[in-house]
Design a protein that fits this description.
alpha/beta; five-stranded mixed beta sheet; two-stranded parallel sheet; 17% strand; globular
Length: 277
Amino acid sequence: AGNQGMLSICDALYLLFVENMTCIIKHNPVRAYNHAWMEQLFAPLLREGYFASVLCGIEESKALLYDDRVDHVHMTGGKATHDAIVWGGSGREKNLLAKPITSELGAVTPWVIGPGEWSDAEVEHHAKYFTTVLMNNNGCNCNAPQVLLLPSDGFPADRFLATVKAIVRARPHAPPYYPGTASRHAAWLRGLEGVASTELVESNVKLPPGRCGPPLPWAFSTVPLEAVASGDSAAAAVRVEAFGPTLAIVMLPSGDDYWARAAALCNERLEGTRACS
């Protein structure tokens, strides 16, 4: 995985000591620095032949994946990578991997807020908390909030969103570090054009460009509930993991069955099953 540096370490520990497997870790190029650290951390196991850490390209990765001596594959990453490994990326006619694979894949993660009596202090606290989670790692997390469900009544949604946007403006926007962030951001804007009302929220703190370009504004897109329910018109927000500085805001009518309807929408319309807050 390229989103969090500790994930490959955690995966290796689990496979070695819980699943009782020998283990070869192939690092995402974004986290190539982990190679040196893991060779030190796992040095006793490496010496005994139970563990290996490698840096390699696509062809070498394929050789590892499809080698008969490898009898299990685990990956942390995106669905497209998983499908390319298992199916070759073109339909599901033939399982090319032909061995067990476990995966922790990204998804369209919802964040649901319910109606009720909210004090000013509670609104501010949860706005700060949500914004901190949202902006972590520039939105490049497998469980980053991508869809925010808010009650259309029984909750001060306008005040909550105004507080969130004020915090986003006050905090620096890190330049993209993950390859493809800018193109996914642009695809989000194109995909929701004419469907959603999008506000680009710039930071008041200007940072220089990074290796993948300059900082991007956070895209706050208000998507009509009917567009989410239909699925196709809002596919950019609900069917594709954006993995970047984007957020879809969906207003859901309040009522006694609010949580049941929110759960149904998340389960039936949002891609994946990663997490929910």
